[in-house]
Amino acid sequence: MKQGPLPSVDSPDDMTGPTDLPSCGPLPTRVGVTGPAPEEPLGVVAVGPAGAERRAVLATLLKLDPVMLTVPAGSWLVVRNAKVPTRAAFVPGYRQPHSYGADRDAAGPALARPPRRVELSVPEPLLRHFTLVDVPDTATLGAAGNRVLLEAVGRAGALLFVIAADQAFTATELNLLAEVAPTSVEVVFAVTPGAAGWAPLADGAATTEDAGASVPPAGSGATEATAAAVTVAAHRAALLAAVPALAGARWFPVDDADSAADLRRALVGWSSREGLQRASVNPPVLPGQHDRIAVAADPGDWSERLDRQTRSCSQRIRQHLALELANIHLRAVQEIVFGVGCAGLPDLLDREMAALSLLATAQCDQAVRGIITDAASRVLGAPPTEGVHRRIATAVQYGLVDDRPGQDLDKVLLITSTAGVAGLTGPEAIDALSSYPAAARSEVLPPVAVALSGGCWQQWRTPGNNDHSAARAWSQRAVREVELGLSREISRRFEVIRLSLGAVLSDAVDHGILLA
Questions:
Q1: Furthest-apart CA pair in the chain: how many Å?
Q2: pTM of the model
Q3: Scanning 87, 388, 394, 450, which has its CA 20 to 30 A from the CA of 260?
Q4: Cβ distance 22 to 308 under 8 Å?
């Protein structure tokens, strides 16, 4: 892909002041599993290959008709507890979800593009413990989809992997599980019967005692249970040969409601432990949250340093996102030429934009935290405690709302069918882009949000529209427009951070105490 100069990126020659620019600190270079915030709701994310009857397992756990869990291809399903059953599709480009009936015969709305997620609310006691999330099959996620999945799993806290008796773990699935293994995420496996039932005993298969699964004891009349136990043991042995860190994961054969009861109890037990742990690390009052904080006698040139640091962080993030977008265009070309073709372009680009949005959001959040910490340390004479940091961050957020340059930061960038980028503002518009929505954010800035409009699906999935040259040119223009749009948004975000944070700390210096 031929790349032009980076838009609005300051070159080193443009930077003013000392050459030893304050650092933003190490910024994340990819989306992965992160620890959940204490206020994050508990969730179990179900994943696995096609043909493993994952939907049937979830339907058995929830005591629902499997048809109720049907969603458009590529969409995530989020199932919550509620007194009144509802079902709604969240589609990028709209501020309000598309509602349709929650009964098995209700037809979904006619949509120009697949929703990022479908939320189903049903009165089910199990969902009082956690939210259940079903994601697309592992073979359809791609590299970008896996990154989005890992981020969601880290926030949810538990991963349920469903695989059939006659299936084997693919390299992609093993890599996914290897990334989850060293984290605090609870990993649980469910094995379902294959097309021919439970696999027969194979030579050299692991014994039932090695399986570590909850299965009925083998004995007279328990041939099927024995076959299930042996199948689970074989799957476990194959997994541990590649990912030994998952030796503590629990395994459950599931083929009916009775066998699913053990899985259900295990998930409820995990949610009880995890809920207590998250609550214990979230004290009601943080140190320094209400104390009078004196300002340092000589804060030095904190204002000039803040100016340089915001410009430096903005530049680094814009440059990194430009490189990411160049790689995205290369993957789009590979999809057009060697993959599904033009029809697969919207799906791939939308997944890539979802992962890019998460990465840009994480980089901005981490950079802003570092900027606040550095500037506050100079003004207060010591690194701020978590309570003081939150006070300053809250005051900065108020400044973003009050100042005109900070208006409409909650903006969605939508790629149009003409390879342009349109803007849509509002927190509801951003929420429609979430595959797995998070709890209320405590960060200063709203998330970065990029997606494809429905017109892109209509254009490239039209029968006969399979012009590879046109698709490659379109994708190059679209990626370039996203690069320009993101560059402007990142620059604007850090400029309003500079203004708002500068005003908060200037008040503190003028009055001798932190007023936030």
A1: 84
A2: 0.89
A3: 87
A4: yes
Residue type, 276: L
pLDDT of residue 279: 84
- The first and second tokens of residue 474, run together, are 């379109």
H-only helix segments in 381-446 = 386-402, 427-431
Q: What is the DSSP letter of 158?
A: E
Q: Residue 452 pairs with which residues in a beta bridge?
A: 415
Asked if residue 254 lies in contact with residue 191, where contact means CB atoms within 8 angstroms, the answer is yes
Name the residue among 110, 138, 120 with its Cα closest to residue 46: 138
Which secondary structure element, helix H or strand E, spans residue 260, and what is its range?
Answer: helix 257-280
- The answer to whether residue 209 scores a pLDDT higher than 60 is no
List the structure tokens of 151: 């981020």
Residue 407 pLDDT greater than 80, yes or no:
no
| Mean pLDDT within 311-334 | 96
Q: Which residue, 256, 58, 70, is CA-closest to 161?
A: 58
- Looking at the DSSP bridge assignments, the partners of residue 247 are none
325-345 pLDDT, tens digit per residue, is: 999 999 999 999 999 899 999
Q: Give the single-character DSSP code of 189.
A: E
Residue range 138-162: average pLDDT?
Answer: 95
- Which one, of 64, 130, 71, lies nearest residue 103 by Cα? 64
Burial 336-356 (b: 16+ CB within 10 A, else e): beebeebbbbbbbbbbbbbbb
With a cut of 50, say whether residue 4 has pLDDT above it. no
The answer for residues whose C-beta is within 8 angstroms of residue 277's C-beta and 6 or more apart is: none
List all residues 6 or more positions away from 89 whose beta carbon is below 8 Å from its beta carbon.
Answer: 72, 75, 97, 98, 99, 100, 108, 109, 111, 115, 117, 118
- Tokens 């699935």 found at: 173
How far, rounded to the nearest angstrom, does the alpha carbon of residue 514 sit from its chain's CA centroid? 35
Q: Is the pLDDT of residue 461 over 60?
A: yes
